Amino acid sequence: MMRADFLVVGSGIAGLSFALKTANHFPTSKVIIVTKADKKESNTKYAQGGIAVTLDSKNDSFDQHIKDTLKAGGGLCNKKVVKFVIQEGPERLSELIGWGAQFDKEKKDIYHLGKEGGHSTNRIIHHGDSTGLEIEKTLLKQVAKQPNIKILSHHFALDLITHISKKNSKKTSCCGAYVLNMKTNAIEKVVSKITLLATGGVGQVYESTTNPLIATGDGIAMAYRAGAEIKNMEFVQFHPTALYQANVSPSFLISEAVRGFGAHLRTPDGKRFMINYDPREELATRDVVARAIDKEIKKSENHFVYLDCRHISKKEFTKHFPTITKKCNSIGIDISKDMIPVAPAAHYLCGGIATDNKGNSNIDNLYACGECAYTGLHGANRLASNSLLEAVVFADRCYKDANKKIKNSSYYQYTPDWNNEKPISSKEKIIIKKNKKLLQSTMNNFAGIVRSKKNLQKAFKCLQVIDKETKQLYKNGVKSSQLFELRNLIDVACLIVQQSLKRKKNKGVFYNEDLR
Ligand code: FAD
Ligand code: SIN
């Protein structure tokens, strides 16, 4: 058994910035970060476009950023949350810069600001097209300097340890988590006073996604099983322009900033089409562009449309988008001569574990932050590059609140041990792999960009079959991260489908053709 004052699950921008601030503020406290892969692996690492922050007082204002966020969110954002997240952005950005993160500058002290869909002006701070990697590396470097933070990589949190108060029988509190050490295959108990879930997104629920393999919704599923409120799961954002490569998953992202830089979308026979869908054309919000592409793809029976950058200066393009240029070159696409095949892919979850304005879930001593949380910022559709912003603002709010709470917290004495002890067999591995693939194709086919009641019901039936088979393995006591992940994917997929069936009106990224 391990003990920590603060247990952080996840080592992306949300978990690392919370851990760093907390450990710094309380040098005598013990902070444990558990993360299920290499410590760098996260959605954060792949973020390209940047962070939306209001910096340019001449051409931008908090009010304008607030207005754009509310408009993208389709009337479902929490206005108070939108306001404070945007207002606190510049201070949080200064902290990242203070820790050593570098962002592109136009000239001394003036940052270069990129543009993305739904933004009325240029306001995206970025590090070329690898902003997330720069942030991740910076945070990990700082965390390494903090003697009271212990990072346990290849440690998979599989369930929360909870306790129901006898005095107030309705109130559940969190006392840590069961964690699988993926190297030794032992299940360990991490007992903590405060737990923060920062486990990221759910893209792996879908066959085509920009999200890396770690994005299996574990935190959301764990919190759900422990009784946390989970909201707005039907709002899965599809990025319009993931690179199309048959049978390659996850998909490489072609940043929206490329369209912000002037790239055009074209049908396979070369025609621009966005004007037929929205006066903002290629820079309409993601829901609009992704649905337009989906429609064009279905009309033409192709698997993709094209993104055309041929009219953009190759030198300038390469300077701003070195990673994208390199990737295209590696598969024989010269962006000055060839068009890039693109298709929408699951990218971001706007919903998640419901929190208050300080990151508290409805379970005592359990916080959620980053993509796994539903704070009210994004409503029905996240405005591009508002998620890194949300993560740093809420990590700060969680840190401030948790630091008040820790003074009156103690360890819960009785925490039961985990008792499953059977390693996985190769036959069971095959069943798990087959069911994961089936789940992903089911969600792509029946719960994707355009949904219908009939298809959602079909998806639910199929998920029930997968769930039954998976529960059987679980009952048999199989102990493996693959099985734990599949269990989480099923819970999250069911939440997406069930909450989709309940929604009565199309909003933002949610579109059910029966509700037109
Ligand atoms: P993550 O960065 O995903 O970190 C989650 C962590 O939790 C990982 O370390 C993971 O290993 C760990 N974990 C998960 N489950 C478990 C478990 N069971 N046990 C232990 N550890 C676990 N947003 C923007 O604002 N701007 C952008 O330009 C941008 N570009 C993007 C480009 C791509 C390709 C992608 C995929 C996303 C992009 N996003 C962007 C979204 C943004 O990157 C994410 O929303 C954000 O990084 C999420 O941060 P996080 O800390 O919440 O989660
Ligand atoms: C991108 O660079 O297009 C991704 C931005 C985001 O998801 O916010």
How confident overall, as mean pLDDT? 95
| Global geometry | globular
The largest β sheet comes out as: 7 strands, mixed
- The percentage of residues in β strands lies in 15-25%
Task: State the name of the first-level CATH class of one domain.
Answer: Alpha Beta
Unreliable stretches covering 5 or more consecutive residues: none
CATH topology of one domain: Flavocytochrome C3, Chain A, domain 1
Number of strands: 21
Assembly type: single chain
Ligand kinds: flavin-adenine dinucleotide, succinic acid
Distance between the termini: 54 Å
- Helical content stands at 25-40%
List the total number of helices. 13
Cα-atom Rg, whole angstroms? 22 Å
Q: Say which CATH homologous superfamily of one domain is assigned.
A: Succinate dehydrogenase/fumarate reductase flavoprotein, catalytic domain
Coarse structural class: alpha/beta
In CATH terms, what is the architecture of one domain? Answer: Alpha-Beta Complex
